[in-house]
Amino acid sequence: MTTTTSSPKSFADFKKLVDAEEFFIFFELPYDQTFVNVNRLHILKQFSLLIEEIDSAFPDLSEAEKLDKYKLALEEAYEVFKTSSPLETKLFKVFKDAPKNVVLTKDIGTES
């Protein structure tokens, strides 16, 4: 588990972050590097969706209040993939669109 160190935080600094690890370090949240390596895109996608919800639901928050909510959102995004798979969450279009010319093994019945 990777841990982080304390440093002053500003909304401007937050806007410069790119990598998943940078967000965890910024918010001083512990994370498992191996888990992040496997689930990086899904965590970041879920995090961005939660940020959109926060910004839409709370347009008048101060920057500090937004950062507090964003921290909780990152924790939630991280935890989602500890209990469910990317296929179950269907964040990306590739998981939402069922191909019309593919038969999944789960859809094939067996005769008894």
Automatic annotation (TrEMBL):
- The protein's superkingdom reads Bacteria
Which InterPro entries does this UniProt record tie to the protein? NifW
Provide this UniProt record's keywords sorted from A to Z.
Answer: Nitrogen fixation
Has UniProt tagged this entry with the keyword Cell wall biogenesis/degradation?
Answer: no
Determine if Amino-acid biosynthesis is one of this entry's keywords: no
Pfam assignment, any one:
NifW
Q: Which family does it belong to?
A: Belongs to the NifW family.
Subunit architecture: Homotrimer; associates with NifD.
Q: What does this protein do?
A: May protect the nitrogenase Fe-Mo protein from oxidative damage.
UniProt xrefs under HAMAP family: NifW
Protein's UniProt name: Nitrogenase-stabilizing/protective protein NifW
Q: Organism source for this protein?
A: Limnoraphis robusta CCNP1315
